[in-house]
From TrEMBL, chains A, B:
EC number: 3.6.1.1
Cell location: Cytoplasm; Nucleus
Catalytic reactions on record: diphosphate + H2O = 2 phosphate + H(+)
Protein name per its UniProtKB record: Phospholysine phosphohistidine inorganic pyrophosphate phosphatase
Cofactor(s) demanded: Mg(2+)
Protein function: Phosphatase that hydrolyzes imidodiphosphate, 3-phosphohistidine and 6-phospholysine. Has broad substrate specificity and can also hydrolyze inorganic diphosphate, but with lower efficiency.
UniProt organism field: Phyllostomus discolor
Family statement: Belongs to the HAD-like hydrolase superfamily.
Organism lineage string: Eukaryota, Metazoa, Chordata, Craniata, Vertebrata
Amino acid sequence: MAAWGERLAGVRGVLLDISGVLYDSGEGGGKVIAGSVEAVARLKRSGLKVRFCTNESQKSRRLLVGELRHLGFDVSESEVTAPPPATCRILKERGLRPHLLVHDDVRSEFDEIDTSNPNCVVIADAGEGFSYQNMNEAFQVLMGLENPVLMSLGMGRYYKVTSGLMLDVGGYTKALEYACGIQAEVVGKPSPEFFKSALWEMGVEARQAIMIGDDIVGDVGGAQRCGMRALQVRTGKFRPSDEHHPEVKADGHVDNLAEAVDLLLQHADK
Amino acid sequence: MAAWGERLAGVRGVLLDISGVLYDSGEGGGKVIAGSVEAVARLKRSGLKVRFCTNESQKSRRLLVGELRHLGFDVSESEVTAPPPATCRILKERGLRPHLLVHDDVRSEFDEIDTSNPNCVVIADAGEGFSYQNMNEAFQVLMGLENPVLMSLGMGRYYKVTSGLMLDVGGYTKALEYACGIQAEVVGKPSPEFFKSALWEMGVEARQAIMIGDDIVGDVGGAQRCGMRALQVRTGKFRPSDEHHPEVKADGHVDNLAEAVDLLLQHADK
């Protein structure tokens, strides 16, 4: 593989995944991944543009940012690209009234959306909210629609919390797709539209940007398909087999965000 | 389409699906589909061989047969081909110790199976047992195995109970497949092995047998792929769009089991 200088040449903007890169979520607000608070601060002090691009759909951005700030991170709501506000824009544009299969903590993001007489289903990481009854209700709404629309906030397979790996929204979306014989529309990584929003908000071209994430498919593969470079950190949900993934090859692996930032500050354009 | 006489010529054995064909399950033991008690009795009095081939995996055969007999059906446990006993045979043959994600009512079917220190997961229609916690436990067992084996008792998309349509095991299997990046082994319809067991138990060749079911993919498509003929009833989970399914074309549609039996008694070999 080429030297880091070559691989990072021309990078002007950095997209950071949050969970598994900055911290592992979990009971009591989660746990910082060592060195990442300082790494974010150094990155923001450098000339590089920074944006947080997350598939977090279990918490509102306000809750998420509150948790991160409590852990010492310098981050504000306006710096975060997350699926719920992007979904609200789409729902409004298309006159869709969702049945929400979402976590209570993210419901407030949909406060301005009409949910009466639903003509679509929006599914997000509902955690314990993924009960049989709630899944069946969403299924019944979809089966009752002539043209069923299922919108999924990300397609994550799983994520890591302090106590271990946890099922994410992707599997539950697959369950509804299979039961109803339909295909979901994905709002979030790895959807190209979602990465493009984040790039647009940051004001850099795909070829000038690099994604740093712990998900080999959602973060690394998704960003690369948009023309960006992507590094995988060996934290969060990273598993050694990811370094030999049959389809996705990261532009580089780093032990953690701190190492990624060291390399960027040495080699990227500032 | 050819006349019924031609379509049913040479039929000597009849495979009957249970739920949606004989009755709709539900609160208080479910509800008979009109005419089906008499239809089963007439079929059994004729010279045709009859076997009940079901993907029911939420109840033990004992419970299921008890429910059916209570509703007036002439059926015994030995006439039923169902996934749980077939699964037990496979588990024993391969020395597999399952983590069971199953309904409490079917757990007794696995009484003789060692479930300590699991090296596979068996998933069946768990109904309300499909909580987030139970799904996550099964997921974590699979992720902890070097060669994860997931055995699914059927791949049903949904079934009908008296109160409406209900999610079946198929979607939940898809969820685990996606989250773990694996493929499940299916024990039940539409697995060819399962249909072949039922044929062997009945002692007829595939070309001499006809399946009667309400599931266009699992019953009709599965049986046809084994060389059998198959009729779809317009009861249970049948939906009008099934008559124009993009991939599966039934050998005939009948309003209900009673009509199917009328036709068989007129045209099949006895």
